[in-house]
Amino acid sequence: MGLRTILKGGDPALRKPSRDVTNFDKRLHILLDDLAETLEHAKGAGLAAPQVGVLRRVCFINIEEPIELCNPRIVSREGEQEGAEGCLSVPGKTGIVKRPDKVVVEAQDRYGKRFTVEGEGFLARAFCHEIDHLDGVLYTDIMERFMTMEEIAELDKT
Ligand code: CO
What domains, with CATH codes, occur in the chain? Predict the structure, then answer.
């Protein structure tokens, strides 16, 4: 299929809980490939299936390396970080969001094989953000506040 349309803000699909993946089939592989392609095109760090209108517990993160997650669950959280967070479904905005500093995630790969992955700092933030999408939660629901234009400009310098 290729590039998919990223749903924005008030779209009802972004607010619904996604269903577990049960078939690790060709259709899932196409979805994962499309998420990767769409994310690369949008120059983002992560994308969840509901953001392209597919209510399945699937997301793709590309920070240090590409990670495909099916049925991901956070099994441990440690510490706290407060920092800038954005979302391709909330374009042009950045919020300040508190997240755990370190998380451990259990998930399945595209063939159904279980694995555990650990994330710290920005990667931990991305895991939390993408998994929230699978429950119909946007960062704007839990943020402290939006950042001002001045704060964002300051952030871009670093
Ligand atoms: Co997002």
Answer: 12-157 (3.90.45.10)
